[in-house]
Amino acid sequence: MSSSSAAPRRNDKAEKVEKAEKVEKAEKPPIRDALIAAAFQLFLERGFEQTTVDDIVALAGVGRRSFFRYFPSKEGVVFPDHERCLADTTAFLAAGEEDEDPVRRVCDAARLVLRMYTENPAFSVQRYRLTKKVPGLRAYELSVVWRYERAFAGYLRGRFAGLPDGTLRADVIAAAVVAAHNNALRSWLRADGEGDAEAAVDRALRYVQEAFGGTDASGAAEGGRPDGRDDVVVVVSRRAAPLWRVVQEIESALGRD
Amino acid sequence: MSSSSAAPRRNDKAEKVEKAEKVEKAEKPPIRDALIAAAFQLFLERGFEQTTVDDIVALAGVGRRSFFRYFPSKEGVVFPDHERCLADTTAFLAAGEEDEDPVRRVCDAARLVLRMYTENPAFSVQRYRLTKKVPGLRAYELSVVWRYERAFAGYLRGRFAGLPDGTLRADVIAAAVVAAHNNALRSWLRADGEGDAEAAVDRALRYVQEAFGGTDASGAAEGGRPDGRDDVVVVVSRRAAPLWRVVQEIESALGRD
DNA sequence: GCGCCGAATGGCACTCAGTGCTGCCGAATG
DNA sequence: CATTCGGCAGCACTGAGTGCCATTCGGCGC
Fold first, then answer.
1. What is the pTM of this model?
2. Distance (Å, whole) CA B33 – CA B25
3. For residue range A169-210, what is the model confidence (pLDDT) as tens digits?
4. Nucleotides of D under 7 A from a protein CB
5. Shortest Cα distance from A5 to chain B (angstroms)?
6. One GO molecular-function annotation for this sequence (chains A, B) (predicted)?
7. Looking at the structure, do residues A206 and A104 belong to the same domain, yes or no?
């Protein structure tokens, strides 16, 4: 792109610098990052549908064919790091110990996914705003989330193998974990990345863990109950009241909200 | 297209017959059904990607433009009745009574969706085999399922409004209901539509209802309380006990199970 | 019976996503 | 220096999806 064949000595030097950068950055293709930056710039200022792949590659200064070497589709450029994150997550689940609570392990895996978002708050918020408006991106995000959910469910199915209704439990818990994670994550994204996302997700996941009863409620130990109270609660309810109403009373009496 | 202006009398008769069919079938465009039939025939014998929209309209004997008048995309023809079913489901939720258990209502809505599958077992099984192999159809199905889940969650958010963690509970329960429904549904589809799908889904949904403690367990209302007791119940629970354990105590104390 | 109107349809042309192929260039080999 | 190999640009092509317009058909008023 820049002036070439002007000074061979200088070119040799430039090559050395480039190589040094390569070693330093370690297998990071600059073309990929240029495409991501160009795509987001155009998507944000002009809209997703109003931007063609040709516009992106023109702004990034690369060939059109290169775009599809790095991303499977026009939507894929919006979720550039999910492939690696999904691999990390499955590896994390595969490395789990046998005596660990499976639900807790899956919750920790979800926390791993959360970290990918919190590492780049600005980027995550921009992407959230895009996916909220563009139906095509929402659909693509669904397929991404679905792969996480299937990874969770697959792990749980293995851990629940032999148990009655093992696959049912696995599927339901995986879906609940994903839903809780997304609920907290989206609250954080709607707040422009302000606030403690980790705490919000912990809180949401604790609700799931309590609902399925397969855990010691993680945060209860640490955040817990600083006054040391582990006392009893008395609830009085009319027998004819609908059960779900009673449960609501119980929950508020127990201080879970 | 067919021979015209040959015998006006005969043409008049043909018109009458056509009109009679229209009145009989009542607002059912035959073009739509012809497109669905042609699409499935080609998808099954040749594969989804190997079939173009031109192939479908050629076999159905209609213009290419008409395909996209009836279906939003090539994938859409595989899920022809979901739009109506989704409308029915949201209407069913909107018509719910205020004093009914919200979780139970959502489970009933899921049973409504199941009915759409069980009404045409052969069709549902064919579609299942297609979506299992074709990634594009899986993605499309995800977006369809997502709309049901959002309908469920929206209803629950309304019912849980004001409660602590209302949206979290709504999202998680909606996801759990959908996951349980799909788990049972897919078992039935894998078995080629043999067996009792209703019973399987009932069983799966009961698991969800128990996990979230928001139900009177199916038959409690009708089984009633013939002794006329409408007294009070006192429950004592340790504050640190997992919620599901507490709920179990409540349920047994209230005599519902 | 006649003409008009609106809805449904078919046909055409166009944009753009995604893919296969070819040639090119630079870098690592001998 | 010659060769090979991997990444990239450019080109051409298929096919999905859309906008536009002409046509047709059933219905309706005159």
1. 0.79
2. 12
3. 999 999 999 999 999 999 999 999 999 999 999 999 999 999
4. 8-12, 14-20, 25-27
5. 48
6. DNA-binding transcription factor activity
7. yes
